[in-house]
Amino acid sequence: MDPTHFRGISAQVIGRWIDNSGTCPAWHSNVLVCAHRGNLPLTTATPPGILSKYPDVVKTIVEDLHALRTVGVALDTIRCRGIIIARLTVSCPEIFEATAKDSSHFRCTKAWVKKFVARTLNWSFRHATRAAQKTPSNADQLCLNQFYQLTLTIRDCTIFHASFYVNIDQTNIVYQPANTATYEEVGSKQVAVIGQEEKRAFTVVVGISASGDALPFQVIYCGKTARSLPTKNTPQFKVAQDLGFKLCFSNTDTYWSTFQLMCDYVGDILVPYWTRQKELAGAPDNQECILQLDIWSVHKSIQFRTWLDQQYPWIKYRFVPGGCTGIAQPCDVGVQRVFKLAVKRAQHADIVKESLLLLKKDEAAPVIRLDTTLPTLRDRSLQWLIDGYRAINKPDMVKQV
Predict the structure, then answer these.
(1) Are 240 and 386 in contact (CB under 8 A)?
(2) What pTM value is reported for the model?
(3) pLDDT in tens, 198-237
């Protein structure tokens, strides 16, 4: 019996392999067939011991991960997977082409990476804790009231086209995911992480219409000058411009939106979108439209509401009930998760790409040291945003939320 495959087997599992229907216990016939095939589990999951033929590669991967943790770099499953794939691609690329007895191929899945890290390094993932948002006890009634309010607005304002109803939501994107959680040796009491105290993130204002359109993003970077934005010679800069993205600096010490930036969003993105839709629908310029917002302080402020009333009286703003964004705000319910998943995949692709470039320059490099400086990550963020926008700019998906 191969201990690599069966080290975690339980007595209950072995009991299910035994046939007790006869006069004496015997192995089930299908168990004997498996044993004849080499004791390999009948599954497409990659066996943890697939790297047993490559001890030097395993040693190098372990050294890479140890070196990053030693200097305080947070390691989540995505980052570990990227480094592992890069090392395997350079050192033993044939591992991805080999066919197992069950016709499966090695895929270096997240599940496999978790097992590899746990068994090879004796690491576990250490999470930070935070209080979860509480949904009000009368959430059903609050949502029903919102439905009534929106219905009356649609009727009274003669809103006859779905594109005249837009919901927007702000979300932050962390440059280095899981910077408050990382893999670390089991039993560790103190887990140090570089950048744990700093706010390395930016804000994206996501907007969708009931007709299924995803509006261009407003992206807010922390800083007080244009030097805080991605550089214009970044390959993805023109693509972002063509998609209508508005790249802004916060003019504060944070990456959150402000009253002025909200006014810019309305004037630069929302109003031009509605102007085009009114032309397509043959609606007058003063056709009333619904803007659905959460109750963030800037949205609810007298200053912002007064500005909207004076500048665009045809915009009817309506607020999602407090504590109900997770169940009553379209962006939160079905769009942000898809967007953030696409961003994470793009971040993972960057890790793999950079690791491969480093290894191609020096395959014998003792460790992989990734560039995590803010200017580099900021420039890369454009590709994350492009991938995220393309992931949600799908009318059929947006309409379902």
Answers:
(1) yes
(2) 0.72
(3) 468 999 999 999 999 999 999 999 999 999 999 999 889 9
